[in-house]
Amino acid sequence: MRDRLVRVEPDLGSVGSGRAACHGVLHCTPPRASRILDRMKSMNLIEKLRVNPGTKVDLRDHDPDATPGFKGKPDVDAILLKTCSRMAELQYLMYAENKRALLIVLQAPDTGGKDGTIRHVMTGLNPAGVQVKSFKAPTEDELDHDYLWRIHNAVP
After folding, report:
1. What span, in angstroms and rounded, lies between the C-alpha atoms of 33 and 30?
2. For residue 124, what is the DSSP state?
3. Which of 40, 58, 118, 146 has the fewest CB atoms within 10 Å, counting from its CB?
4. Cα torsion for 76, 36, 53, 149, to the nearest 10°?
5. Any idea what DSSP says for residue 128?
6. pTM of this prediction?
7. Sign of the torsion angle spanned by Cα atoms 91, 97, 98, 104
């Protein structure tokens, strides 16, 4: 199992308009993204996907290809457009504030889609403000510590 650590730092230059940065990649309109997000809220998607503490879950009861709440790529692209626009705005604000950063940890087996996730989710951000750290199989020293120990060591 390989992990990826993505640290979105304040960018090192102007990001311009987040929407403009995203439009060229996704070809979706913000009003469509807003309608889809409104539909997700009305569907109570969070409640449908929530697993309450103490609840036992048998993964065999769930379709791994399911995409609840999404009818296909256009829905996902529209939501990604709205999200990446907001992320670009927040990246610029973090740069201006110069106090905070966003840390994203992805875990999946080889060919689990981590690289594609990083590529798509980070769409519209200034790449100068993004660091990616890859972790291979844990070393003996890493195995002697808790799961997140090596990730904590990689955070600047």
Report:
1. 5
2. T
3. 58
4. 40
5. G
6. 0.49
7. negative
Q: Which two tokens stand for residue 84?
A: 């990446």
Looking at the chain, how many residues does it have? Answer: 156
- Domain coordinates of the chain in residue numbers? 2-53+70-154
The two counts, helices (H) then strands (E), for the chain are 7, 3
Query: Do 136 and 3 contact (CB within 8 A), yes or no?
Result: no
Backbone φ and ψ for 97, nearest 5 degrees, come out as: -75, -35
pLDDT tens figures, 68-124: 777 777 777 777 777 777 888 888 898 889 888 878 888 888 888 888 888 877 777
pLDDT per position as a tens digit, 14-42: 333 333 333 223 333 345 556 666 666 66
119-147 pLDDT tens trace? 877 777 888 888 888 888 889 999 999 88
In degrees to the nearest 10, what's the CA dihedral of 145, 117, 103, 28? -170
Q: What is the dihedral of CA 90, 92, 94, 98, to 10 degrees?
A: 180
Question: What would the two tokens of residue 105 be?
Answer: 């940890």
Structure tokens at 108: 């999946």
Burial of 144 (0-12, 13-18, 19+ CB in 10 A): exposed
